[in-house]
Amino acid sequence: MDSSIKIGKTGVFEAELPGIHLTAQNSFLFIGNDSAAREEYTAAFCNSLFAEQYEDAKTSLIESPIAPELIVIDMPLNHVELVAFKVWLGSSEFKNIPVIYNEAALKATEIKQLYSQKLVDDVVNLRSNYRRLPYKAKFIQKIKGSFRTVKALSRGQLKDNGCSRVSYLQKTVDIVLSSIAILFCLPLFVLIAIAIKLESRGPIFYSAERAGKGFRVFKFFKFRTMVVDADKKIKELADLNIYQSTEKVPAFFKIQNDPRVTRVGSFLRNTSLDELPQLFNVLKGDMSIVGNRPLPLYEASTLTTDEWAERFMAPAGITGLWQVSKRGKEDMSTEERILLDINYARHRSLRGDLKIMLQTPTALLQKTNV
């Protein structure tokens, strides 16, 4: 995303982003005890609040006449204290203020923990991205609903992407179609289950945490197509990943002729029958029939930057724009796949969803084993 950054007469930087004029007037709440960082943030956002600990942050929020646009945490992780602070936020009028954490203050395992437990809305490198904080705050608010509209949220009046009526129709279609499909596919479920059990040991279904709309984490279901503990072998097979890149881009993981896939699993994948259990995710409201693919947490964690996160504005789906236009093609780049997701998120409509549904049957048979 292009931006123009310059130094103003006061020595405080100013930046121009699409639809945003960034100045020191932006109000945030910074939590941390690093004096050097505080000086840097004070120079850039002198209208903001500062607190060394969570208890101080609570006091600042309560006493401040204007609620901050964003809460920024920049200190080593204390899991117990962070959870207590989030519980307090959730029970207060500040519950929808976006919360982000400085990546530099965390270990890799802690970042994964924060995402999986949904303790923060994003983890960013503040030193290189704090000039974009107003944009990030605005983007997260689009997902969560602005904290200034708490009453509207409680009455269910907040529109979904400005199209509440369309959203309601899409949800209705999801429930009706998934219910009918489950009833018709029950005999097929039984046959697939028997085939899986006859070929290899392990459960019939595969379940894992995936990130969907708004980075919401849910339990995702498929028929098992791989050997048991296949996820633990990812590092061993990293060199075979078709999405490898030397550039700094988001990471997906997929390989040709995956040795972890069973013979029954290969057939299920090539016919997309392994996706059938996701009908229950649709019925539960975790997913839609049409949307962007829900991603494993290790993939979703690489898509939290401003230029990529927009794909999560759309619901998670069984089928989608990527599947009907590029599925199974070897020349598809990481950027191309994400741009298709972003395009769908920006232009999603009931008519467009119906068109994708009609195109899905012809896209079921993949041309390559990926």
Q: What are the defining features of this structure?
A:
single chain; 370 residues; alpha/beta; Rossmann fold; 3-stranded antiparallel sheet; 13 strands; 41% helix; 14% strand; elongated; disordered N terminus
Q: Can you summarize this structure?
A:
The protein has 370 residues and is α/β, with parallel strands linked by helices. 41% of the residues lie in helices and 14% in strands.
Outline the structure in words.
With 370 residues, the protein is of the alpha/beta class. 41% of the residues lie in helices and 14% in strands. The chain contains 14 helices and 13 strands. The chain has a five-stranded parallel sheet with strand order 5-4-6-7-8, with helices on both faces. It has a three-stranded antiparallel sheet with strand order 1-2-3, with no helix packed on it. Strands 10-9-12 form a three-stranded antiparallel sheet.
